[in-house]
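Subgroup meeting minutes
Present: P.N., E.W., G.H.
Scribe: E.W.

1. P.N. recapped why we're keeping a running log of single-chain structure predictions: easier to compare across weeks, and new members can see raw inputs and outputs side by side.
2. G.H. added today's entry (737 aa).
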Amino acid sequence: MHNWLTNCATVLTLFSRVLSQTSGGGSNLNLHLTSGGFDNYLWRSNTTAAQVLLTSPNVTDRLQRFVVAMPAGNSGTLAYFVPSGLGQDFSVQLVNGTLQDAVANFNNVGVQGHLSFNADASLGVTIIGAVRAMRDYVEGDGTMHEIFNYTISSFNSSFLHLHRKWINSSLGMDFVLSAEDNMVFNVTPPTDAISAPTVLFQLPDSTKLGTVSWSVVCNETSFTGLGPSGFFLQDSQADNAAGAKALQGLADGSNVDAQQISFLTYETKSLAGGWRFLTYFGRDTLIALRLLMPIITSDASESILGAVFERLNSTGAACHEETIGDYASFINIENGMPELGDTPFYDYKMIDTDLYVLPTIAHYLLDIPQGQGRANKFLSTLATLNNSNLGVSYHDLLARNAIYNLNRAEPFALKPSVENLLHLRPGQPVGNWRDSNEGLGYGTIPFDVNVALVPSALRALGRLTQAGILKLEGIPDAGSKADGYAEVWEQRAAGFFSVDVEGETVQARWKDYVVQSNLSDTLLDSVDTANPEDVSFYALSLHNDGTKVDVMHSDLGFSLLFASNVPASTLQRVVELLQPYPKGLLTNIGMFVANPALSSNRTQIEVLNRESYHGTVVWSFQQALMTAGITRQLKLCDNSTVSIDIEPPTPRPSWCSDKDLISSLKSAQLRLWDSINGGRDEIFSEVWSYSFDNSTNQFEVADLAVLSPQGTESDAIQFWSFTFLAIANVTTLADQV
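Output recorded in log:
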């Protein structure tokens, strides 16, 4: 089945965002949106929260899939419905207006509704329990874990009750189906504990729709939602005209995007995205916070920051992903500690998440009006979540993180060498936002971590200590030491990633690339073949021995937004990067996050193609990062630059006197926004790929889930993709001020 799903023809899947019903600025939600060929229903009440997903009725290139995902325990149900007849126009849909709370015995809560079937079908692969187990199947080439098998509690011709008891726990989940109008069940129970039952859905009258009522409930702890009025500032609270314009309709919930991001925000944490990442991810929330901070409340910022501090470990490292509920039991068993039961498992394998903490808290406490004067109260909060941190103040947890990052930066600061750059952790193939082997081109030393994030964290440490907010015991000169280390990183790290390609080689590789990628060579019409120019850019990553993964990439955005003292040479490379693809990263549907056209290793063309999760695809948050970063740099030279964000007073960079560079950077920013605007229907989704029309030489949006061999799909809502709410569009500045 998996091969059938992922090898079908590429289909253009339009993205639309449709508001079904809202409840103003409160925390209750009832939303309907379509994305990537799926209908998504977001439900939240004072009882529960859930995302319900079904294959859209006009999509015929995949099986009908039903997903219920709940933040409570990051738990849910996945089921496929398979048509009984071949070649049928088969569809299973949620009956409008039927989604509502479900409450059962023993504190079981969830959601319920009605499904309509237009033909006979059978129940296909079904997974009940952890959303992560559901992801393992969808994206893991059909990976199933026996330990997550469910049981049939009861059944007859009109009723089916499937149950899963959590591992090592009294908690569990129930998936109940009842036959309603024009529907009969035919159920054959399994003959052993491993096999699944045979469940047929039969319509006595084939000319009419059949209806099935369903409910999914569990007794995991639900979280208290943070509605738009608790997340966004009021228009009148904005610090500038652009911010006031951006805030219109957000706090009162009349803006559908405010409602959708609200589904991911809770009083004690924010979630990365639905449905696949409906849990805490440190990096995602910190990046999103850094960009959204100018338009959100103090409570919202401190909810996100507090969640990060609560999950720091005893060394000061920041948690990448929190695993809770039934999957936590599975992880604990896999780690040889079944006695921990469903104690949450915190993942610390990434090397970048730790480095976002200091710059983000510094921006909040020192620059943003909502954070000023709140340092003492917030940092005196005592941690209550993680056993290793119980009773420790947020200040002391932040100090742990500061010392941890200072120690990590020291070897390179004392001896700048490839060996002393930050590498992926031993035995780990991932470590930054491009969290896949392929995403880094199989490199082990990421550009963003070393060139942008380490010096940014050091500079933030210096600012916080100088302001008297952060005190590091035993290191009286911590601030000056951090600034000294930062200067070495700023001056030396980027050089290890520098790539120069000679003009004639550039042309040969571009021509080869368009052929290998099935693109039109008219994309290269602007190339001056008579006077080929050399091209310089920064490598995506390095291998352990210092050899470069010479692939163009979008991660310079991290330097522009987070780093201090960005040199003119980096800005010039940004200008060159923001050229039309395949010379640069820009297309008419957005900015690609990688471009392997000039790589000396031609296998990277396949590794980072349009089917790769981090290849020649568009990530919304990366576009937001890049354009916000350019605006930040321009504002350092000209305070009249329109920005929603608040920038700290800093010395005017020396390159501000280079009028040609400033002009080129502004032109690059406009090109970037033209590219962003071309894919604007997708702007609040996670990631999308492309198809190319050789007759028009235009790119069109394509669904990554259909193209990807792993079935990797885009989330309909992703926390860091909503960061465009806090970014002024320079192509419509008249509307921003």
